[in-house]
Request: fold
Amino acid sequence: MKNYKIILSYDGGRYNGWQKQGNTENTIQEKLEGIVSALAGSPVEIYGSGRTDAGTHAYAQVANFHMEWNKTAASLMEAINERLPEDIAVRSMEEVNPRFHSRLSAKGKTYEYTIWNSKKPPVFWRKYVFWCPKPLDVEKMRQASQFFLGGHDFKSFCANKRMKKSTVRKIYEIQFTCAEEKITIAYRGNGFLYQMVRILTGTLIEVGEGKRSPQEIPSIFAALDREKAGFTAPAKGLALKEVFYGEGRENA
Amino acid sequence: MKNYKIILSYDGGRYNGWQKQGNTENTIQEKLEGIVSALAGSPVEIYGSGRTDAGTHAYAQVANFHMEWNKTAASLMEAINERLPEDIAVRSMEEVNPRFHSRLSAKGKTYEYTIWNSKKPPVFWRKYVFWCPKPLDVEKMRQASQFFLGGHDFKSFCANKRMKKSTVRKIYEIQFTCAEEKITIAYRGNGFLYQMVRILTGTLIEVGEGKRSPQEIPSIFAALDREKAGFTAPAKGLALKEVFYGEGRENA
Reply:
């Protein structure tokens, strides 16, 4: 059996997230498994690098699966793309080491959150941004974001209150890009808790609106209490941008 | 009565074009007239700079209407935007000379057609581009487009076979922009016939695919026959980018 690594783009707008769980229908994983299993002639399980929330997008989700295929990886990719709906696409496919696992081998990820900061409605971007009509103080948001860097217990920024495993994560870099009406915040870290990027972003937006000061952030961490952090920014502004593997990158 | 000029953006995807005609429902004009008439308390007619086809978008459609309004233009714009669906937005509004008419005063327009030229599906752009998976020869397309410049009888590029008025139009400039997977062709001219930009683009695509040579274009013009030109590129790749008024620009 060959082990294939794929990179996927999807518009999460009409899906219940990446992962099928219990009775959850209409997930991206399920869509993909149906197609690959049909091509394989037997059930194939697809392993994603991690879940993405309902409504969240991906420029480059990574997944892998084991399958017999006599032709090239390119021909398999083409066969899958022909069968996928137009809001999901495989961008690349390669045969990898049998031990490669998209989640277990991952060293970290970059998520991107996009805010539309203008009184003018985001007509063409409405499905990919969170619209904040009032001007945000990006400098203050940047200051606040500095407190997120490094290793911390992110319990206050985790939506899963019954999380039993460690809530310690490390954020390597947070980058702000302002282009016309858009403010994009890219978070690069070794892993992210349930809705963590959306809660971090909601907290930064409240700082940008002047409802909180950047100096409040350490006390939010110290509280270890979800209630102390900001709101959960909507899923549609969020996209998984990169999953990285191998050496060298994680501390860069 | 004040005369208001508005600039509008819309995602034409779910509309039957700009203009209500006979029994055509679900047009952008109708949507807007409903809202403005309700604010005015009496029927208001909205004059657009021209029709856009069903499914075609606009970054900057221009329209005008006459209305009594005691507050600022900005407050009227806000009131309209609050009531519009999220795929239509008024970008600017100003009170203008009573004689201004968005269509009759217009000196010309720029339309933009976007082609997605990549084997990889346009996941996030799928509603705003026409997808051509095979590589296009852009240099050949550019050569062919040179024959469109200047004043011509564009009858071969007009979908209305029973057009009784003049089919002579002038194109001032055609600009190609290639950015990653996207080829954008901007056409600036004094006016465009029914589906003319889409037929010009379809013809250029056939040149790009090698099905026609650039040197064929003069004979297409000479035939005065729609059948001789290329296919009608789909509406969703087309957007009205600018309507221009006043002096100086049209020959620039």
